[in-house]
Amino acid sequence: MSNKSRYDQEFKLGAVKLAQHSDKSNTQIAQELGISSSLLYSWLKKERQPQEVKGAMEHMHKQESEIKQLKKELKRVKEERDILKKAMACFTKNPE
Question: In the chain, which stretches have pLDDT less than 70?
């Protein structure tokens, strides 16, 4: 399945607040939390985004998941249609 985050939102927010208000370097904080410094930097970058961007990104993610679900449903419906076509062909043949 998709690459789900191992860290919950509460942990991420705590790490970001710690990085923003601590005298320690972000690298030190990341090491103490057991995460990579690049991960902490990406969380900080997300936190600095304007609220409109965050809302737009959330909306985009919802749309992407809806598209994924619809594609899955479409695939299932096409398979059902193909099965019905084959069944109709079998039942409508004239026995000779």
Answer: 1-5, 94-96
